[in-house]
Amino acid sequence: MATRFMSMRNLQFTMHELIGKQKADLYKANDKQAEKATDMILKAAFEFAKDAMHPIFEEMDRQPPELDAGVVKVHPDVRTIMQTLGEDGWIAAPFSEKWGGYDMPATTFNAINFIFAAANYSASVYSNLTIGAARLIYTFGSEMLKETYLPPMLEGKWQGTMALTEPDAGSSLADIKTMATPLDDGSYLISGEKIFISAGDHNGVDNVVHLMLAKIINSPAGVKGISLFVVPKLRPDENGNLIKNDVIVNQIFHKMGYKGAPITGLTLGENKNCKGYLVGEVNKGLFHMFQMMNGARLDVGASATAIATAAYHCALDYTKARKQGRKFSDKNAKDPVSIIEHADVKRMLLFQRSVCEGSLALNMQCGLYEELIHLLDKDQKIKFELLLDILIPVAKSFPSEMSIFSTSQSLQCFGGYGYCDDFPVEQHFRDTRIHPIHEGTTAIQGMDLLGRKIRMKDGKALSLLTEEIKITISNANNYPEFRIDAKDLTDAMEMVLSTTQTLARMGQEKGEEAYLANATVYLEMFGFFVIGWVWLNQAIAAREGLSNDRLKKADRLFYQGKIKVHEYYFANELPKIVSLSQVLTRNPPVTMSVEAEHFTN
To answer: How many other C-beta atoms are found inside a 10 Å radius of the C-beta of residue 374?
Structure first.
């Protein structure tokens, strides 16, 4: 198994020279001590991931969870990992000091999640889900809920989950049927069924705490009647002892990848003894849950990025070691060359880096906006709230979709070996396929972007984003070698804005269905545009790095390589916006004219 699963050098570049530069410009300061402290944290995270998580990457896939006599049994190291992450403060890190944390900045937190997911995605989800669930309780829960559930969750003793999906209500949460009946003691009797619950039950922790959506009896129809509840597998009785809470695992799903973490089906209240505890306000459950969902969407994008990154490093190591063929310019050479010398292999590696490093930069950009939202006053933070809102669908979907193509190219670098389980890339390929589905499918992200984010506050978010991109274009024009790229990104921006206006007119003329018919295609176009922006930012940062006359050879090669990947992206990926715009401006969309009856055999 390959020992390298990521580049710490690239992560530090992204954290300090790209995002850190923006922080320095905003705060008019450059805190070298904070940078060193961050590097120490990242190094510790990397060492833990390398020693505890990565060695069992393949084992967790080969030995998936089993449902045995009502108990979901997972890899035995899951308990050790959760305990260590709890005891050493990794789970509590984003929380306040009161709860054992130290308000870790979002960029640092995102970087740690990236490291863990690159080492072993399945192993990383247990703690990540727990953090998301704990945040909901921390933000909206009563003091009683906080005191009861946060300590054991943040200590890694209890698992947290997000329980939304039901057999007859997947993405359409308005149709959920899980019901909550008020009881005299202030709790609720829960009854219903949930499916596809990640880490919904397992023996790697002492208890599982579900953050669950349900409808209170006689609540309004649709999403307006959804409330949020804590529903534990084991609930504390009046003496503080844990007793069964009538939450039964009825199945575990057998998946093509991501096998190390169980996905469960749950039956709730079969014996009319399942209690839930209201989180936040009645009928505001979906609003509350969106906090966890938005965080989870960024996590999904980061995880897809991490898997593709791990696959890229497998391919990179292999192509350097594997010798086959000779260069066209030297066919008489006696010995074969490493396949990384062949142009098409370089193309595949460039593509992978453009996806992985572009996606990581976008994720960290979103992390920066999260930090600013919490640091700035109300008037100032509105800008960054809108920027984060419009980027979340892209930061979730671009890495999710493109990681499939990226890991496929990693597999291709291995030739026939890539299709065999002798090498880990086939597992990366299987593992990453869940991400376009997780936490809102790509189609849902497309409708969110085009249907909500583009139009919110009369297009203010889109306007703010284009202002940020114009700043990058202006900066690029200061370097003669980037002026053509600045023009290309300007043209791409104008095409995206023009296409958006055309769709708006189409919606006015033919209705909302026509406007949203190709929302997924719009999201794809928008994603190529946004990643072009972050790549131009990276190229500028790398160019500034090269201005240091005392650079070590490794650093010089790193910066030069970064600029070469940028050149590849602008030459090969950014132009795809043109053809996607042509699809989007077709009037009417072909999806509007085709009927269900046309799909015949």
So the answer is: 11
